[in-house]
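Build the 3D complex.
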Amino acid sequence: MPMSTEHTHLNPHISRQFSNELEDVRRKVLAMGGLVEEQLAVALRVLTDGDARLGAEVTAREEQINAAEIEIDSQCTQILARRQPAASDLRLVLTVMKMLGDIERIGDEAKRIERIAEGLVGEDSHGEEPTAALAGLGVQARDMLRGALDAFARLDERLALDVIRRDRRIDARYRDLLALLTDRMRQTPDAIPRELERLWAARSLERVGDRCKNLCEYVLYLVRGKDVRHTGLARNEDPAAE
Amino acid sequence: MPMSTEHTHLNPHISRQFSNELEDVRRKVLAMGGLVEEQLAVALRVLTDGDARLGAEVTAREEQINAAEIEIDSQCTQILARRQPAASDLRLVLTVMKMLGDIERIGDEAKRIERIAEGLVGEDSHGEEPTAALAGLGVQARDMLRGALDAFARLDERLALDVIRRDRRIDARYRDLLALLTDRMRQTPDAIPRELERLWAARSLERVGDRCKNLCEYVLYLVRGKDVRHTGLARNEDPAAE
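Done.
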């Protein structure tokens, strides 16, 4: 899908160059998103399989993610300064700049989950109810991230709305897990530190969901040309109602 | 302090108008920051004094904060589209757009703390050690927010660095409180739900500190003209080392 058709006032050569720059930014954001997806996948593997040999990989990938954020942000600033984009080009650049922060912080949450999971390795908690519940939450968070990145890649309004809607489900599941963990703490006070670690992992996954919702709100802004934050899902629900 | 001296290529009339627009944006961000400061102050009052009559006020103020975010963001987008700012003007507009998200989310954390505090009213926990520790954390978070907003208002690099440095202290204090609460849960399993609520409040205050650090990193970007995120405090420490 072409990302830009607005810079028709430019001469064809400049216009082509500009399109390439925007396409490059778009590609890089998706690549950065891919790194964060991997980061989250690895964190979940450590959490569910207890494979703790992946820590160094996570640290290296975090550096790549941070570098990508700085690079893309600086590229966007340069585009704003040099190309002075308007309309949908401007929206694309601004959307990308906003998405960067959320994508990077999803990476941070993934790293946090991986660290927690490393600490839990050897606790022999496989097959336990909270481990399964965390894994379920993790699958939901990963699907939301995939959905948010796809919605951006394809400028898919319906998919963006679908991901926003899924945030409620992950919140509900998070609350169930919170109740389960609280219960276990009460029954076995000695296990409180371990259950708290799981609670932090669950919280991180819930926050990944929040950030995926943010990403999709930016995608809606990009597609619709208006800001839908703080308006409530109801008004976002049906594109036909616009 | 003049926020902009870069648009000298414009005719004097346009240049004056443009300066006024930038000044207006800057003023509105500070006003929005003031609302968030009040939101946090009220939340802390409910937390420490147990005065729960402030809930409606918090809800009303949250709407104002959300509306301010949308309005200022849209104003910035219009400035980018119409004025095509360069150099420090462009940095100011982009810095503001980034700050908005963090300021708004500090407001969200304040609201969350206020809700938790309301739930704790009547628990007769005044004079208890965690209440005092939470209050201390709250004072630190408020001071960081005040410092971050002042650093932006005055473009004060040293103050921004000072606030960034303080984030470590709030993190340390948060970890102490976490240990204290874990201990209390272990000793009195029946109090686990209450101690967890306090834990969430502490976590929110720690996150306010994180976001104040983000705000100050944006201020450094604005002042220095280069991105200091992910570079570690050491390299930010001494402006003379640049």
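Chain B touches chain A through 30 residues (CB under 8 Å).
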